[in-house]
Amino acid sequence: MKKEQLEITLADALPKDAKALLDFYKEVGAETDYLSFGAEGLGINQEQETRYIKSLEDAPNNRLLIARLGDDIIGVASVGAEQHAKIAHVGELGISILRRFWGLGLSKVMMEDMIDWAIENEILRYLRLEVSNDNMRAITLYEKYRFEKIGKTPNGMYHDGQFHDLVLMGLNVENTDQAE
Q: GO: which molecular function terms (predicted)?
């Protein structure tokens, strides 16, 4: 059997992507218990999502990366960081991919793109994330990219009728040009 070749493109989100992103979040939220939201999505409307995407233009330490197959969004990776000077150097990393595209290496490509971007970013010095302690697939991916376990939030997530600990992981992304 011949493997199908998919042409997936990566691009930063634009305001015109707001509705498609909200639809993506509803679909991906329904597929896994490991996100902080479910089939309801993010709980915001298209106008709010459009404003958020526009705000990224003025937030150089934030990014929203979209993976597309044709016109369909199949994955999203993001780094969100505060603009306050004391904490602007720490970004929260998130990644989600539609289940039918798991196992194709897309998470690796998106992770590498986001880490490279963070290393080159003039503000960011550290990425962190939280992941359910039983999401071994994600933990393995993060460890592959040198994220270290730095703590946990006991009972930080509720799914499958029970509470689960969240593992806090972090990665230093300071490049040599940033070192003082």
A: acyltransferase activity, transferring groups other than amino-acyl groups
